[in-house]
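Worked example 3 (structure in, sequence out).
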């Protein structure tokens, strides 16, 4: 970390740190950056206010689309799946969409997937817990600790201080970097970190005159700057963005994912967050953040319409063939469960093995499903059109 760049920061300061690197066993003396409390008001350039207004308009269209859909899963389920994949990829965990969807069938196929897939699925579990929480309660540090613990339990690597605010120093940078060549060194554990988190928690719960997209941009910077956990800060921090929008009533459901857009601009994303600490200039980051909101909200509306058209065509095809019962129910479920197995159909609809096989065979016959496992037993089938739509987010 270039301490000289941050030494005169107008929105934070450096504190000296020392200790022993647990990996190398070597002693270090260096600096860590501690952000000041977030402001209640900002002087921003006109183009920043315009970007925020445009983002809010796109969120309004997305909210309206959610309200008009007969099945909210048309937006919510694809958003969660895509976010799980891309927010994990931002942290170096890569998995394929079909593999993650197949992993949901683990109780029926006896295959929980690779360590990477299990880590992505852990994010989905974490997000579902968060969405249930936010229905009735605000974001709290304690809640985020519980979420981080879910991530840690699904991680490929052991994590220090799982499920609690870290008690050790962390650094941000390439894997294996030291405190000296890290891109950024967050606040040391202890009183400064905990005080910063308490201020952050109060700030996001208070009423401000700033639009919610600007508040979310500021809160995300502050959370990532504090880096309160031993692992999972990026994934938890990006989830908090959606939780803020839900808590504010800006969205009726978690039908938004920002990580696909950020993944394509990973270097720019990281550079913006680092630049704020040195310059105190919020405008470039807020404009970047609002563009992410605008683009992804519009993309979700388009994908929802694509899925709505798809299920309408499938229903018409079934009606023309006079197919009803389990096959019709299964077709409707494919947006939420685009990868299924015969055992899953049996369990979900409480039908016999022949009935489940017949429903799947019919959907394969008209091209709605295709076999994707290549196995003779415990075969898995996927709805390619649904998965293709999710990939567009």
């Amino acid at each position: 970390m270039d301490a000289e760049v941050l030494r005169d920061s107008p929105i934070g300061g450096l504190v000296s740190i020392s200790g022993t690197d647990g990996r190398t066993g070597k002693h270090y003396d260096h600096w860590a950056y501690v952000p000041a409390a977030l402001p209640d008001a900002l002087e921003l350039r006109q183009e920043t206010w315009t970007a925020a207004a445009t983002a809010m308009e796109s969120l309004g269209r997305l909210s309206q689309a959610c309200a008009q859909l007969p099945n909210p899963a048309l937006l919510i389920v694809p958003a969660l799946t895509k976010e799980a994949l891309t927010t994990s990829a931002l942290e170096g965990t890569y998995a394929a969409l079909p593999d993650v969807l197949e992993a949901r069938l683990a109780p029926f196929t006896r295959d929980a997937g690779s360590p990477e897939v299990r880590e992505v699925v852990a994010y989905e579990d974490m997000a579902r817990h968060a969405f249930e929480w936010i229905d009735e309660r605000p974001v709290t540090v304690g809640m985020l600790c519980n979420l981080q613990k879910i991530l840690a339990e699904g991680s490929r690597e052991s994590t220090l201080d799982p499920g609690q605010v870290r008690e050790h120093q962390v650094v941000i940078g390439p894997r294996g970097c030291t405190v000296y060549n890290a891109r950024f060194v967050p606040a040391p554990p202890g009183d400064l970190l905990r005080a910063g988190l308490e201020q952050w928690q109060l700030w996001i719960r208070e009423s401000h005159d700033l639009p919610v997209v600007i508040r979310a941009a500021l809160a995300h910077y502050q959370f990532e700057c504090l880096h309160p956990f031993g692992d999972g800060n990026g994934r938890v921090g990006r989830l908090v963005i959606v939780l803020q929008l839900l808590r504010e009533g800006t969205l009726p459901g978690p039908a938004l994912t920002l990580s696909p857009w950020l993944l394509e601009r990973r270097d720019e994303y990281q550079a913006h967050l680092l630049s704020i600490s040195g310059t105190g200039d919020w405008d470039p980051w807020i404009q970047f953040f609002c563009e992410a909101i605008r683009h992804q909200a519009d993309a979700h509306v388009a994908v929802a319409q694509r899925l709505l058209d798809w299920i309408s065509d499938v229903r018409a095809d079934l009606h023309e063939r006079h197919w009803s019962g389990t096959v019709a129910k299964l077709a409707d479920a494919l947006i939420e469960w685009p990868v299924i197995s015969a055992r899953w159909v049996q369990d979900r609809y409480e039908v016999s093995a022949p009935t489940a096989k017949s429903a799947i065979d019919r959907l394969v016959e008209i091209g709605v499903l295709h076999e994707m496992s290549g196995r003779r037993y415990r075969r898995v089938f996927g709805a390619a059109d649904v998965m293709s739509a999710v990939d567009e987010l």
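Notes: The longest helix spans residues 283-320. Residues 3-52+70-281 form a domain with the Fic-like fold fold (CATH 1.10.3290.10).
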